Amino acid sequence: MLRQPTFFPRPEGLHLRPMSSTELETPTASSAWLRFLLPSAFGAGLLLIPFPLGGKISIALGHAVDAAKASLGPTLQISVTVVIVLSAALALLLRLPPLSSWRALDGVLGPILRPGALVTAMRCAGAVIAALVLLQRGPSWLVGPATGGVIFGDLLPLVFLILFAAAFIVPCLTDYGLMEFAGGLLSPIFRPIFGLPGRSAIDALASWLGAASVGVLITANQYEQGAYTRREAMVIAGSFSVVSVPFAYVIVDFVGLGEQFIPYYLTVIVCGLVAALLCPFLPPLRSKADDYLDGRLRELPPRRSGGRGERVASPLAEALAKASKSPSLSSLLRRAGLQVLDIWLGLLPMVALIGTGAIAVAETTPLFRWLGLPFVPILQLLGLPEAGAAAPAMVVGFADQFLPAVLGRSIESEATRFVVACTAVNQLIYLSEVGVILLRSALPFRMLDLVGVFLVRTVITLPIAAAGAHLVF
Does the pTM of the predicted model rise above 0.85? Predict the structure, then answer.
């Protein structure tokens, strides 16, 4: 299924303790400080800090991608097509003897190189579409500039470049203690504000710094281990499984607003916080039982004591402990390489198939226009131009998070495109990956729950996104 990469590490639950001054002065602690500060600063500098370059304000990753696109030009589409065709060819060949008995397929390479029959068929279909679009052979509704041309000329090259770079940068934020430090600092506010255990801050950070699927998998694992009740787990999965920063940049840059990334992402954060505050008190999450997987009812947690210094020292101790056990450079590069394979061989063919198919349906049938009709008066009430063109983008995100940006890209109004991009990131529930993971996990989600959370989040975040758009434009 179309998804964000899932090879980012899964952080363990926090076991916080204050670090003594003796420990901080040891050579081992000095090494841990360097391991914590240098990679974290490097990753944050590339992914989180904007700066102007060539008349455009963006993060370093955005500037690098712009330069690569300008340098490579049309060869990017050829490269993407070759990778997609190679993905399908490998999936087919590795099912044939004697290659099917290759021992390397028994490890982590197996699901990437030789997926199941359904995914193999989808890769093959994606490869056929990629070849037809590149050669411009086939019906215009499939290979034309408004359908296959958009996916293969604009979207896939962007995904190809950004997620390749992110595979090597994001571990700097997740493997060297920054997540533990930030999660520890955020923990005290999660229970009083969101009514959730402090450890849920880690789930949120795992999504934000890694991928939505990582946060969902951590939440499902914690629920199975008895750390969350049914309602807590569903609220966390349905409120904090945000897309990662690189994915957010993919979407806003694709709709032509990459220079507005900072106000865009600030608006996304506000939308997400308000939705996280309100969704637990609205259907369908409001009615979920507050019991554990084994049937126990939730008990009130004990109050924690400790001054302000301890509340900082404990997360710092955990961050330094994480940094001291950080992976070697060779191990990090190996995992990043596996993720690149997962992105190129697994993700790109799914985007090619699902994205092209969905945009072809949107361009040639009235299905999404019909489904989006209830949003037309809402968008008009919010003062957004081209409400009729934007309404289908409000519902197509349930299929996949990329599709609202694909449909909204042709809208002339920058404010409306801004709202489409914000909503796409904040809807959270999309069937191409997160929805499937939720339905297949131990979390008690049903299809109606997914639809309900998707619609509630859309209605809550739309006015906030519109307010942000009116402030920016």
Answer: no
